[in-house]
Specification:
The structure holds two protein chains of two kinds. Chain A is built from 18 helices and no strands. By secondary structure, chain A is mostly helical. In chain A, α4 packs antiparallel against α5 and α7 packs across α15. The longest helix of chain A is centred in the first third of the chain and has 33 residues. By secondary structure, chain B is of the alpha/beta class. Chain B has three domains: about 230 residues, 3-Layer(aba) Sandwich (Rossmann fold), CATH 3.40.50; about 180 residues, Rossmann fold; about 70 residues, no CATH class. In chain B, a hairpin with a 2-residue loop joins β21 and β22. In chain B, α14 packs parallel to α15. Chain B is globular, with a radius of gyration of 25 Å. Classes of the chains: A mainly alpha, B alpha/beta.
Chain lengths: ~425, ~525
């Protein structure tokens, strides 16, 4: 024993610090993002004609041109996502309200883009925690948008502080219904939730299409659109035009905290996590796995539903067909990036929001296609999913204690 | 002449642990050398060093007097050392030949595998050592015992002289173990040498030529089965006197705690795994259920715990009918269940020790107020139980996955025993545990019995059933053949019952007499 303690003491503090640090999985995530950025930069470089021209002049010119190309891409991505620092400074010096708002708009627009990601990411993450693979977030999002927008335009005469919660709740209920069905089928018949949720997606797309083209179409419009929602259902905006930043972002943060609290601080979350981690152990412990599965799927659905309601109540104020561009599908990746933890989901949703918003500016300014951001996201996820690669590249140690792993049954699994 | 294999001063440190501390070991040609020690004593680390999976911090290895450096399994195989792992490394959908060729494929022209040549060699090996393996069978179709022999052939195929066998009996039935020991003897008779890693005393006494006992990473002694006895070996292994016999007072049976009437339960294959079983267990007594694995014990226990609804019959627990009740209702009545498969059913491996200790009481005060979990109380409870039940864990926040098998089982025992229980259903409570843990869990069970708890003990270890039970029921093909008093039974008689043969009255009388002679 004595010998052991001596051995331990010999290690210097810096060594211990790095050892501990290298075991943390947060570091792996950070390095995965960094590696993704570096590789995407290289990809930009090899697809830029100027780089080849410069290489034909001299090797060093080529290298310089690589950095130039990558810098141009990422700086425009950054400016698109956060705003141009020099513009912000001059705007504040000028003191003109509109100029200031324009200058800081990119940052707030990124938060706006991140908001549905937070909701939908939480939906998928919650499913994962209970051992369910919710591919249906996109469909639940459409249903939530549909019921949300309906409550927004059909109910009249309410003050905003009642109408907003009612409309959001309606959105949550619409999504919850779309989550309940696969949850119920899974729990009662063992039908695999992946297949059911995929099918439910199509039903949701077509159903909302039908409703917007028919019963819910605005009679004053020739194209399929729902009526405008009431003023009282608009999610409050905090700044004047052009900043679209609205209440939804804070609702999303609140919901993320609520989900965290439910999952990790209550008996109810304990049951859900137990079912997710070991269903037969949960059954042994007397936990009703059927109930847990149904509740979890419904709740996941309601979160995705909120994502949809948030979009129609906060930004569009009406619903048009195919209004969401894949938030529900991106959120699967996002939930994994966030380690299926509510706070991790918020962080990765912010990252996705910034990337999504910044990429437009990037395409405009440097001509790099938006797809490079998809590649960047894909690379980051690949590295997160395969931490062994990152550990090998950066010579990190394996963590001593395995973290709570998520367990989703495969095809035909029990 | 130099020994076949010599390890000198092997030392291996892991962060915070000295796994091997200057270990010396020699292996002579043609002997079975048993390496005996509890789980975590450092046996497997030592063998992994020998097989090149770890490199030692200090120490030297000699083969036939020549110093060798082993940097990986390839080096080990070149030095004539092969290893049969505890968990087989076979590909189920490949044939025996294909599995054995894997990694050492013989190729014909144009890159085709020469299966025929390999199959012939395997056949020859199988015949020489009487292993009785068909090279063309698919591994998935073979029973576990035969799969193990495939692993042995795999090593012999690579011309190994030294065989390391890591807990080879852990996965085998008693009959297969006997078979294995015969094969090991044939192997050494033909000139091979075996290092046999185990923590089971009986096996060492039965088949080893020499025994080296390891404790806490150090060699504590070497002996032979002729010089040693199980008691002495157990003491060497654990480091103190071990009570192999359980102290048992006379039973004071009280009220009926569990009453089962004509119970029939279907298994997953829609057959009656439990077929008309009736018995009762009283407070303060242990009813043991003996039987060969797979005769309906698993389904019986699952039905009693509410995990598998019975098709017919009646279950009464503590005076309430529970035939169709859910697990939560049954456990809340004051019944506890130590499940057969602790990792699958009894624990949430990814959860910390403290949360596993409240797995079926988390919703009760003081662990929860309303729906809010009280983590302070859960931690307090965890600390208390870890102390009381001597659970060896770095902290109460360590995931149970990182605990040894014995300590995992202690977590379950601690959790179930800390609840106010009147009935305990213990299914294979000591399977796969080392001597120290077995002794501990037996003691705890007996204490519970003295406190007036009714215990239903299901075990495939006949010795365990005989030692702990007051009455013994033998299950065979879903039926209880007979229930006998433990004092009136003998091992032979129970053995016959387990094989489905009902002994005559005459034999029972004889057994009783024999027992009395032994007692007096």
């Amino acid at each position: 024993m004595e010998k052991q303690t001596q051995n331990k003491k010999k290690q210097n503090a810096v060594g211990i610090f790095f050892e501990e640090l290298s075991k943390s999985t947060g570091l792996v995530t950070f390095l995965a993002i960094l590696t993704g950025i570096i590789l995407s930069g290289l990809l930009v470089a090899v697809t830029t004609v100027e780089v080849y021209d410069a290489f034909s002049v001299s090797f060093w010119d080529g290298i310089k041109e690589i950095f130039k190309a990558a810098w141009a891409t990422y700086s425009s991505l950054f400016i698109g996502a956060f705003g141009d620092p020099t513009k912000i400074i001059t705007a504040f010096q000028g003191g003109d309200g509109l100029a200031i708002r324009r200058a800081i708009n990119p940052f707030f627009e990124s938060l706006v883009q991140a908001t549905p990601y937070i909701f939908a990411g939480l939906s998928v993450a919650l499913g994962f925690r209970v051992g369910l693979f919710n591919i249906g977030a996109e469909g639940q999002l459409f249903m939530g948008a549909m019921t949300g927008v309906f409550a927004g335009y059909a109910i009249t005469g309410l003050p905003a502080y009642i109408h907003i919660p009612v409309a959001l709740l309606a959105g949550a209920l619409g999504g919850a219904l779309w989550g309940f069905v696969p949850g119920f089928l899974k729990a009662k018949t063992g039908a695999h939730e992946v297949i059911i949720t995929i099918m439910m997606n199509y039903i949701a797309f077509k159903l909302t299409d039908f409703l917007i083209n028919g019963p819910m179409q605005d009679p004053n419009e020739y194209t399929p659109k729902t009526p405008w929602i009431q003023e009282s259902a608009h999610l409050t905006r905090f700044f004047g035009d052009p900043i679209r930043f609205h209440l939804g972002f804070f609702v999303a943060l609140g919901v993320a905290f609520l989900i965290y609290w439910l999952l990790f601080k209550t008996t109810w979350g304990f049951e859900l996590r137990t079912v997710g981690s070991n269903p037969s152990g949960a059954r042994y412990a007397g936990i009703n796995t059927t109930k847990s599965t149904i509740i979890a799927m419904s709740l996941a659905g309601s979160l995705a539903g909120l994502a949809g309601a948030n979009e129609v109540l906060g930004l569009n104020f009406r619903m048009v067909p195919s209004f969401s561009s894949g938030y529900g599908f991106d959120s699967i990746a996002l939930a994994l990036l966030g380690k299926t933890h509510p706070f991790g989901v918020v962080l990765s949703a912010l990252l996705f929001g910034f990337l999504r918003n910044g990429s437009r500016q990037m395409q405009l300014k440097s001509g790099v296609p938006i797809d490079i951001v998809s590649i960047l996201q894909a690379l980051i996820l690949a590295f997160i999913a395969a931490p062994a690669i990152i550990r090998t590249i950066y010579r990190l140690k394996k963590p001593d204690i395995e973290e709570e792993s998520i367990r989703v049954s495969g095809w035909g699994g029990k | 002449m130099a020994s076949l294999l010599e390890l000198k001063g092997i030392t291996k440190r892991f962060p915070g642990v000295l796994a091997n501390d200057r270990i010396d070991l020699t292996l002579e040609k043609g002997e079975i050398h048993a390496l005996l020690g509890e789980n975590g004593a450092g046996k497997t680390t030592l063998m992994n060093i020998l097989y090149g999976l770890y490199s030692p911090d200090e120490g030297e290895i000699f083969v036939n007097g020549q110093k060798v450096t082993i940097n990986g399994p390839t080096d080990a195989i070149r030095a004539g050392i092969g290893m049969v792992h505890q968990h087989f490394m076979l590909i189920p959908v490949f044939t025996v030949t294909e599995n054995i060729m894997l990694g050492e494929e013989d190729v014909k022209m144009a890159g085709f595998l020469d299966r025929k040549k390999a199959a012939e060699k395997i056949k020859k090996i199988s015949d020489t050592y009487k292993l009785n393996v068909n090279p063309n069978s698919y591994v998935k179709d073979l029973p576990v015992g035969t799969q193990q022999r495939v692993e042995i052939i795999k090593i012999l195929f690579r011309e190994a002289e030294i065989l390391i066998m890591d807990e080879p009996s852990a996965v085998l039935t008693p009959q297969e173990v006997d078979e294995l020991f015969k094969i090991m003897r044939i192997l050494v008779d033909q000139g091979k040498s075996i290092i046999f890693i185990t923590h089971k005393l009986r096996e060492v006494m039965e088949c080893a030529d020499r025994i080296t006992v390891i404790r806490g990473g150090k060699v504590v002694g070497s002996t032979t089965p002729q010089e040693a006895d199980t008691k002495k070996l157990a003491a060497m292994m654990v480091g103190r006197e071990v009570e192999l016999k359980v102290k048992k007072t006379k039973a004071k049976p009280g009220n009926t705690a569990l009453h089962v009437e004509n119970l029939r339960v279907l298994n997953a294959q829609e057959q009656f795994a439990v077929d008309g079983v009736s018995f009762e267990v009283r407070e303060g007594e242990v009813l043991g259920i003996a039987g060969v694995q797979g005769n309906g014990q698993t389904e019986l226990v699952r039905a009693l715990a509410g995990l598998l609804p019975p098709t017919e019959g009646k279950i009464e627990i503590l005076g309430k009918e529970t035939t169709k009740e859910k697990p939560r209702f049954i456990s809340e009545l004051g019944s506890a269940h130590i499940p057969e498969d602790r990792q699958k059913d009894g624990l949430i491996l990814a959860f910390p020790v403290s949360e596993n200790l409240v797995l079926n009481s988390y919703f009760h005060k003081p662990f929860a107020k309303g729906i809010r979990l009280q983590f302070n109380e859960i931690a307090e409870n965890g600390k208390k139980l870890v102390d009381n039940f001597d659970i060896r864990t770095p902290s109460i926040n360590t995931p149970v996955r990182n605990l040894s098998g014995g300590n995992q089982q202690k977590v379950i025992v601690a959790r179930e025993f800390s609840r106010p229980i009147k009935l305990l259903i213990a299914s294979q409570p000591t399977r796969g545990l080392d001597v120290g843990s077995i002794e501990y869990i037996h003691e705890r069970l007996m204490k519970k019995r003295e406190e007036g708890c009714a215990i239903l003990l299901i075990s495939t270890e006949l010795d365990e059933v005989i030692q702990l039970s007051d009455r013994i029921a033998v299950m065979y093909r879903g039926k209880i053949l007979d229930i006998v008093n433990a004092e009136d039974s003998s091992k032979e008689m129970l053995g016959l019952l387990m094989a489905g043969i009902k002994p005559s009255e005459e034999m029972k009388q004889k057994a009783k007499k024999e027992e009395q002679i032994i007692l007096t």
